[in-house]
Each structure stands twice: as structure tokens, then as C-alpha cells.
Design goal:
This protein is mostly beta strands. About 5% of the residues lie in helices and about 60% in strands. The chain has one domain: Porin, CATH 2.40.160.40.
């Protein structure tokens, strides 16, 4: 575990402080999320998330409004399967808007169960239909491998109340066929942040996310996006056997 964390810290440091030479632009964004989660039948977890993303830099307008319903099933103490169907409406520029629908199955493997640190690997597949206004829709497919760490700060495990915990994760977005005309279609990201679990029902996250993005497969990563992400999560129907979402 120590070695894995060391590699993650190294990756985050390189991503933030040593951007690629081909990099041309830097921007700042604010993301706000509100999520509700409802576990049931001891092995299922349904959640829904509202999301608002906004470009703060003095550039072309970019705003994104999202809604993501998701269903998780716990297969064992280590394995979960997930299906989500996100919907997005995005103001890509001042005169170009898109609507997007995704079908996103995923699998998550937890390396450590019951220990102090929660470490997980996630593999997600996105089947995307993106429809620009006044233009034909496009279909794009990508895979998203990632790794996550949740580290309690003032408690022994991640599932205790009145606790602070650290959030560390990284994810790559690998387009399998074609990119669509949009920002952030193909990127790698890393996040570091703090979460607070007041009790079973109420949780809060504040996260700094940095990502390198590019518009097409044959171009370099020419944008560094610096994102402040604020999340508010509410859980209902306390069922202990379900692996709680982060």
C-alpha cells in the first residue's frame, strides 16, 4: 500500500507542477454536485446526482448541467458492478451547445476491506451519444481505468461518523473510436481532497482536481484544467451490508 500511494503522489506532483511542453492553455473551473443515495435489499445501492460545472477563466463560455442515475450491486466484499445513465447539456462555446446521453457499465474491485485505508480499482465503459444543436448526433466509445484511495484522518475506518478523510484518485479516459467536437473528450485526471462524514446521512467533500485534456486523438494534451469541486451527499435507509459510495 505504501508503494502504491508513493506512485500516486508522484503522478499527482508531475501532473500539477510539470505540465507537458505542448501545453498551451490553463483554465479554472467550479463544479458543484448534489447526490442522494438509497441502499436496499442488502446488496443494492441506487443513487442520483445533479451536477453543475462552470468555466471561471476569462475565455469562451463553457457550462455543463448533468443528471446521473446509477445502480450498484455488491457481488462480494471486494467486487461491485455498476450501471449509470448520465444525461448532460453543455454550452461548449458561446454559440455551440450539445446534449449527451451515456450508458456506462463499470466494475469496482476493493483491494482492502475493513482496514484503515480503502483502496479500489475501477474500470468503466462509456457508450456516448452526443447531439449538437442543428447537427447530426455522434456516437463515441471509451474506457476509463482508475484507482481510488479513501484515508480516514481522525477515525480508524472510513465508515465511522464525525470523521475527516482524505480523497486521492486518478483516472484515464481512453477513446476507442472517434472524439466528438467538445472539450474534455479525452483526458487524464487526478484528484486530491477532503471529505467529512457527519453521520450516516450527511457527507461533504471539497476536492481539487487537475486534468490534462485534448480535443482529438492525434493532438497533444494542450490544456490544463484546474477544478474546485464541492459535493454534498445524503444517504437514506441505513443498510450496513451495502458498500457505501464515496
Amino acid at each position: 500500500m505504501t508503494g502504491t500511494l508513493r506512485y500516486f503522489y508522484s503522478f499527482l506532483f508531475v501532473l500539477v507542477f510539470f505540465p507537458a511542453k505542448a501545453q498551451k492553455t490553463y483554465d479554472r473551473q467550479l463544479w458543484v454536485d448534489y447526490q442522494i443515495a438509497y441502499p436496499f435489499a442488502n446488496v443494492y445501492l441506487f443513487d442520483a446526482e445533479l451536477n453543475y460545472q462552470n468555466l471561471l477563466s476569462n475565455q469562451n463560455q463553457w457550462r455543463c448541467y448533468g443528471f446521473t442515475p446509477e445502480l450498484q450491486r455488491t457481488m462480494s466484499n471486494r467486487i461491485d458492478i455498476i450501471l449509470s445513465t448520465p444525461l448532460y447539456y453543455t454550452n461548449q462555446t458561446n454559440n455551440y451547445n450539445t446534449f449527451e446521453f451515456r450508458i456506462s457499465p463499470a466494475a469496482r474491485y476493493t483491494f482492502t476491506t475493513g482496514g484503515r485505508v480503502e483502496s479500489r480499482a475501477v474500470l468503466r465503459y462509456d457508450h456516448r451519444y452526443v447531439k449538437p444543436e442543428d447537427a447530426a448526433g455522434q456516437i463515441s466509445n471509451r474506457i476509463r481505468p482508475g484507482i481510488e484511495f479513501l484515508i480516514p484522518i481522525n477515525r480508524k475506518t472510513y465508515f465511522e461518523d464525525k470523521q475527516l478523510f482524505a480523497i486521492l484518485d486518478t483516472e484515464a479516459f481512453l477513446v476507442m473510436d472517434q472524439n466528438v467536437k467538445e472539450r474534455f473528450a479525452n483526458l487524464v485526471k487526478a484528484r486530491i481532497g477532503l471529505g467529512y462524514r457527519l453521520n450516516y446521512t450527511y457527507r461533504f467533500n471539497i476536492i481539487y482536481q487537475v486534468q490534462q485534456s485534448r480535443q482529438t486523438v492525434d493532438q497533444p494534451f494542450d490544456s490544463q484544467d484546474n477544478i474546485l469541486r464541492i459535493r454534498f451527499v445524503m444517504f437514506f435507509n441505513n443498510v450496513k451490508k451495502v458498500l457505501e459510495a464515496d
